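Good morning,

Attaching, inline, the backbone tokens for the sequence recovery test we're adding to the shared suite. The designed sequence is right after.
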């Protein structure tokens, strides 16, 4: 529910928000240069937003994923991705790493999750995914703190 008393921190400090957008654009270039599928990139954004409970980012990135051609079934089962056959080995490694970074408060990025990622992904992909998760978590926190409105 929107709270009109909340400060929109992006508007309050626009230079900081613009810097976050610039970082996001650089990370987008890094994911492309690392050879990550743009659909997977959107799924990683969605997954981090699901974990963080960010309705604003969930709506935006779900729409983006569908517009780019993502399968609605993959989006629907994303919270239970380990239980499905919809995701490739690369997808699984990326999702696992993104979840570990997003849930860092649960004990940091443990060696098991990290090693599972590096067994499948290149160093460039690991780095790009880590930056993507970092930026997505920052955007989630901006939207949640400011209570960006969603729905009517």
């Amino acid at each position: 529910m929107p709270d009109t008393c909340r400060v929109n921190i992006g508007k309050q400090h626009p230079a900081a928000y613009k810097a976050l957008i610039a970082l996001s654009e650089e990370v987008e270039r890094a994911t492309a240069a690392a050879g990550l599928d743009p659909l997977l990139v959107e799924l990683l954004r969605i997954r981090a937003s699901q974990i963080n409970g960010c309705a604003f980012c969930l709506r935006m990135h779900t729409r983006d994923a569908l517009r780019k051609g993502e399968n609605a079934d993959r989006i629907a089962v994303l919270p239970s991705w380990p239980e499905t056959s919809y995701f490739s080995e690369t997808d699984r490694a990326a999702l696992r790493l993104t979840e570990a970074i997003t849930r860092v408060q649960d004990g940091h990025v443990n060696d098991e999750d990290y090693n599972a990622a590096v067994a499948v992904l290149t160093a460039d992909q690991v780095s790009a995914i880590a930056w993507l998760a970092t930026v997505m978590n920052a955007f989630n926190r901006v939207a949640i703190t400011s209570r960006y409105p969603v729905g009517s």
